[in-house]
Amino acid sequence: MGNIAAVTDAEFDAQVLKSEKPVLVDFWAEWCGPCRQVAPILDELAGAHGEKVKFLKMNVDENPVTPSSYRVTGIPTINVYQGGEVVKTIVGARPKAAILKELADFI
Q: Minimal CA–CA distance to 79: which of 27, 35, 8?
């Protein structure tokens, strides 16, 4: 995964929940094929829309606390947080057009 910064359990509160702008968090793992399919799409979106939405990724194997607290049971899961709350969830790999449609309110 290229241009998207990683976030850890320890940083999640400060980086995501207290952010002034919406934050997209991609929950993923190294072994997850569909996660690898979504990664370049999210990299592209981060490059195009990074001024409106903060893009982060979280490895669920290295950071088990946050995904379990948000009931992330399947990956990839993309959550959008605004004002400390989940305002959008996308589960599973989707084509770019579908992801853009889901995120239209934010980008």
A: 27
Q: Which two tokens stand for residue 22?
A: 């919406």
18 is catalytic: no
Query: Per residue in 90-102, pLDDT tens?
Result: 999 999 999 999 9
7, 35, 38, 78: the catalytic one is: 35
Each residue of 10-52: pLDDT tens digit? Answer: 999 999 999 999 999 999 999 999 999 999 999 999 999 999 9
Helix (H) or strand (E) holding 42: helix 33-49
Q: Say which of 23, 32, 42, 103 is annotated catalytic.
A: 32
Residue 106 identity? F
Assess whether 64 carries a catalytic annotation. no
* SS3 state at 80: strand
**Rounded to an integer, what is the distance from CA 106 to the centroid of its chain?**
13
| Segment (H or E) for 97 | helix 96-102
Check: pTM over 0.70? Answer yes or no: yes
